[in-house]
Design goal:
The complex is a heterodimer.
Chain A: H1 2-9, H2 14-42, H3 44-47, H4 62-78, H5 86-93, H6 95-108, H7 120-130, H8 132-145
Chain B: H1 2-10, H2 13-16, H3 19-41, H4 45-72, H5 93-109, H6 117-123, H7 125-139, H8 154-162, H9 164-177
Helix pairs in contact in B: 4-5, 4-9, 6-9, 7-8
The chains are: A mainly alpha, B mainly alpha.
């Protein structure tokens, strides 16, 4: 009986969680874009040698939002497993796209591993600016999913 | 034990096994289960919007693929929008993201139109076409329906290219949502 009730609590299917993860990831990426403006306004970006925040103009704005959604898909796949410690998982989840950025995309674009060809400050800025991604994705997903994943 | 006996003892014999009482209880329990089942399977508005946002992205992807199919078949029209749409970054992200945005109103309405969602989905490319022909193209200087910078067949061709958008959203959203919206 308890098992039946637990099964009924599984309100969402896997594909629903993935779709919600995608939307939540886009919101997480939007938070990163906004945070880049906050860092810029606070003067931290300038201190770290960054001249401009993430552009809000088309078509540049769509790329980070879409990639945020794709990373959200992966988040959605694990959301049920990580539900009990969702916010910790979310906070640490930024490490996944950062790892891809530091170890694949930046070296591929010629900036070297961790973007260190641009200097250590650049790597720190990337870490800092992306920090809200996972936690905002987790918060958005939690708000959409509700009590039971 | 004594209490039970006492209560039974206070009841008239014919009332002890009155079928109406049992039926009533069964009916109530059935109703509870039905409500629980309904609630456990039903999605909330925000869930439907999120699902349809993702479905909208896939709808836009279907449009991009369809534009390549039409191009491969030799169908095309010159105008302010270049077809087939490029799959290269950063151009690819814009239509996909806008597809997702158009999926949001679909998600707001999907519960209302659930019984005729495929018909609604099939027609759902029309609002985005209206926005394109009556707002975005004139704003970009191409005039209403893009006719200032295109051959007369262009609006029809754009509508043909965008035809899979709404029905793909409906199919994907229906597959993700399941039986109950």
């Amino acid at each position: 009986m308890e098992a039946d009730l637990n099964a009924m609590k599984d309100a969402l299917s896997f594909s629903q969680r993935v779709a919600i993860g995608f939307a939540a990831g886009v919101i997480g990426a939007a938070a990163v874009v906004l945070f880049s403006y906050v860092l810029f306004a606070l003067g931290l970006s300038g201190t770290l040698g960054i001249k401009a925040p993430i552009p809000l103009k088309s078509p540049d704005i769509y790329k980070p939002l879409f990639w945020g959604g794709l990373w959200g898909v992966l988040f959605g796949m694990f959301i049920k497993t990580a539900w009990s410690w969702l916010y910790l998982f979310g906070f640490l989840y930024v490490l996944a796209p950062l790892a891809a950025l530091f170890l694949f995309f930046l070296p591929k674009s010629g900036a070297g591993y961790f973007g260190l060809n641009q200097g250590p400050k650049f790597a720190f800025y990337l870490l800092l600016v992306n920090l809200p991604f996972g936690i905002v994705t987790a918060l958005a997903a939690r708000a959409i999913v509700g009590r039971h994943p | 034990m004594n209490t039970t006996l006492a209560r039974i003892g206070n009841q008239p014999i014919d009332k002890l096994h009155e079928p109406k009482i049992d039926q009533g209880r069964t009916a109530t329990q059935g109703s509870d289960v039905s409500i629980m089942e309904k609630d456990s399977n039903a999605t909330t508005l925000s869930q439907r919007v999120a699902i349809c946002f993702a479905a909208g992205v896939l709808g836009a992807l279907a449009v991009l693929l369809f534009s390549h199919v039409l191009s491969w078949l030799g169908l095309g029209a010159k105008g302010p929008i270049h077809f087939p749409a490029s799959f290269e970054a950063p151009g690819i992200y814009r239509p996909l993201f806008w597809g997702g945005l158009w999926g949001i109103p679909f998600g707001l309405l999907i519960k209302t139109v659930w019984n005729r969602r495929y018909l609604f989905g099939f027609l759902y490319f029309l609002p985005s076409m209206a926005a394109l022909f009556l707002f975005f193209l004139p704003m970009g200087g191409a005039g209403y329906f893009g006719l200032k910078a295109a051959e007369p067949i262009f609006p029809l061709y754009v509508m043909l290219v965008n035809l899979p958008f709404g029905i793909t959203i409906a199919l994907v959203a229906s597959a993700i949502i399941g039986r109950k919206p």
